[in-house]
Amino acid sequence: MAIIPLMRKMKVIRCFEREGALTKDTALTFAEAGIRNPGAFSQITSMLMSDGILRSIDDKYYLDANRI
Question: Are 56 and 48 in contact (CB under 8 A)?
Fold first, then answer.
């Protein structure tokens, strides 16, 4: 994986971890988690979701703590 996508993946994970978005009840939008321009790397978001690291509910997202 190239360095920029890897950095973006780690940033997404860190932002959601920092904000405590680890369950359905604490799910956040990308903006609430402090992630700017979430559509810029939609493939990274898709990869995180297909790997089960990032989950979504009602247009909000949270990390699956068991998959990080």
Answer: no
The DSSP bridge partners found for residue 57 are: 60
Q: What is the pTM of this model?
A: 0.87
3-state helix, strand, coil in the chain (%, to 5): 45, 15, 40
Cα angle 19, 22, 26 (rounded to 5 degrees) comes to: 70
Task: Report helix, strand or coil for 48.
Answer: helix
Per-residue pLDDT of the chain (68 residues; tens, 9 = 90+): 578 888 889 999 999 999 999 999 999 999 999 998 878 788 999 999 999 999 999 999 999 988 87
Instruction: Give residue for tokens 């369950």.
Output: 23
